[in-house]
Amino acid sequence: MGDVFKRFGGGLGTVFTALVLVWLAGMVLAPNITMIDYALRPNLPPSAIGGDQDVYSLSNILYLAGEDVHRAIFFKTIWASALVAFITFVVCYPIAYWLAQNATPNQTALVLLALTIPFWINEVLRTLAWYILLAFRGPLNEALLAIGIIDAPVRWFGDAGVLAGMVYAYILFMLFPIYNAIESLEKSQVEAAKDLGASTWRIHARVVIPHAKAGIATGCVFTFMLAAGSYVAPALLGAPGSRWFTQIIYNWFFEGGNWNRGAAYALVLLVLCLVVVLVTLKLARVNLTDVAK
């Protein structure tokens, strides 16, 4: 904060600081405090709010523990989000390494532009494009039928469709942090490892990945959190057997009319996601300051 005042002076620095504090209070603290308040209070008619029954309790949160179906969907969402992060990393790491270490400036600019342009379109429209692609009579089935790989159209909707849609939707959140981290790696380190006889696998395991672990952790955190909180992809590409926990929260709010229970479910998801992220950063030995860079 001191750097802000040194750079912009007392008056302008105070204005910028005040704007940041207002933004944090209005967009971060207030919504979360309201969600906690709703989660700990019962769902009552307007006439009963503030009465004897309007007391704080953990009943809405404990309700999740007693619902076997909701609890199973909750844990499935967590591990599936981790799987999305892993698949996205597997897809993005070779691309990021090639862009940072082997591609020419023109190739890098062209590839990054080609990856970025589709994201100028709304997420709903991009997911609908996947909906068309994976449709029973869509281009994917038509191509596979023409090649002869399948004999009849396949229903791709479900867990596979949701995973594919999410990997595509969040690929840039994994690619850019890894690319930025690998770009700072001196090529001479890789060349030295090759001269010493290290295999390609050993070079990546001992040189590249340790150097880029902050970028990898950042990408995994972003991708995991976005996947766990996603609603569009599961709603459009999922099937009855592949429900996401966010769909349960949506149903409590807009179909069940129980905002308090929906807030409790959202709070549980938020807390567990934060725990998973912090544990992951701890195991990877990466600080939050490294992720924030």
UniProtKB/TrEMBL annotation:
Topology in membrane: Multi-pass membrane protein
Domain ABC transmembrane type-1: 74-280
GO terms for cellular component: plasma membrane
Alphabetical keyword list: Cell membrane, Membrane, Transmembrane, Transmembrane helix, Transport
Transmembrane segments annotated in the record for this chain: 12-33, 78-99, 105-121, 128-150, 156-179, 214-237, 262-284
Keyword Cell membrane listed: yes
Gene Ontology biological-process entries: transmembrane transport
CDD domains: TM_PBP2
Location(s) in or outside the cell: Cell membrane
InterPro entries linked: MetI-like (IPR000515), MetI-like_sf (IPR035906)
Pfam families noted in UniProt: BPD_transp_1
Classification via PANTHER family: INNER MEMBRANE ABC TRANSPORTER PERMEASE PROTEIN YDCU-RELATED, INNER MEMBRANE ABC TRANSPORTER PERMEASE PROTEIN YDCU-RELATED-RELATED
Family, per entry: Belongs to the binding-protein-dependent transport system permease family. CysTW subfamily.
Protein name stated in the entry: ABC transporter permease
Organism expressing this protein natively: Georhizobium profundi
